[in-house]
Design brief:
Helix content is 77%, strand content 0%. The chain is mostly helical. It has a domain of 108 residues.
């Protein structure tokens, strides 16, 4: 039997290194960022509800494929949940609650795998759903759960723009505008993220709109 030349063995070893867990993790991060950037583009830059809906449907399929590509990983699930939440936010009244429930179930899975994923992103996204969706008997909204999860996200990312903005929005929803203003102002002071320009600019516009209501 012929032996495999050493140079071929080395080539095979080098090929295997390309599929190490570290390489796979880097690939997942890049794939997740593509969903992240796609969501921000649709949410803040695409015009027209019909165009947004079609773009979100396509992105949702991509997010589902990402979850299948990385089974058991929290971050792909988190972004699938965020995209589904955005679909719920922009859907008609007949589909909103069904999509919101689907988003909740996806985010619950992400949170169960890693409650700290994306600096509290799963906790924050779940919290947002719990205060924005109507409570019983219409929906599953729960202000107590929302507060707990939003504060958890804030503890994990105390200087984060999203964590402070959504806690401010929740406090405004609860009628505590004085406290809401403090967190909204803190959100606006968050460092800019040049790697996510569409999100950075879009979220700051939302914060400024909230502050306008609080003045």
């Amino acid at each position: 039997m012929k032996t495999i030349p050493t140079r071929l063995k080395l080539a095979a070893a080098a090929a295997l290194l390309a599929f190490t867990p570290a390489a796979a993790f880097a690939g997942m991060k890049e794939d997740v960022k593509a969903i992240n950037d796609g969501w921000a583009h649709i949410a803040y830059e695409v015009k027209g509800s019909s165009t947004q809906t079609k773009a979100l449907d396509k992105l949702a399929a991509q997010a589902a494929a990402l979850v299948a590509r990385y089974p058991g990983k929290a971050e792909p699930l988190l972004w699938q949940g965020i995209v589904t939440s955005e679909q719920a936010n922009r859907a008609n009244m007949f589909h909103q609650l069904g999509l919101a429930k689907e988003a909740r179930d996806i985010l619950v899975k992400a949170y169960a795998i890693d409650p700290r994923v994306a600096a509290g992103g799963a906790a924050m996204s779940l919290g947002v759903l719990y205060y924005k969706v109507p409570g019983s008997p219409i929906g599953f909204g729960d202000d107590a759960k929302a507060k707990k999860l939003l504060k958890e996200a804030l503890a994990l990312d105390p200087q984060g723009m999203d964590a402070n903005y959504f806690y401010a929005d929740f406090l405004h929803d609860q009628g505590d505008d004085a406290s809401a203003k403090l967190f909204a102002e803190k959100a606006l002071r968050a460092a800019h993220d040049p790697a996510r320009p569409a999100w950075d600019a879009g979220r700051r516009r939302e914060i400024q709109a909230l502050l306008a209501k609080l003045r």
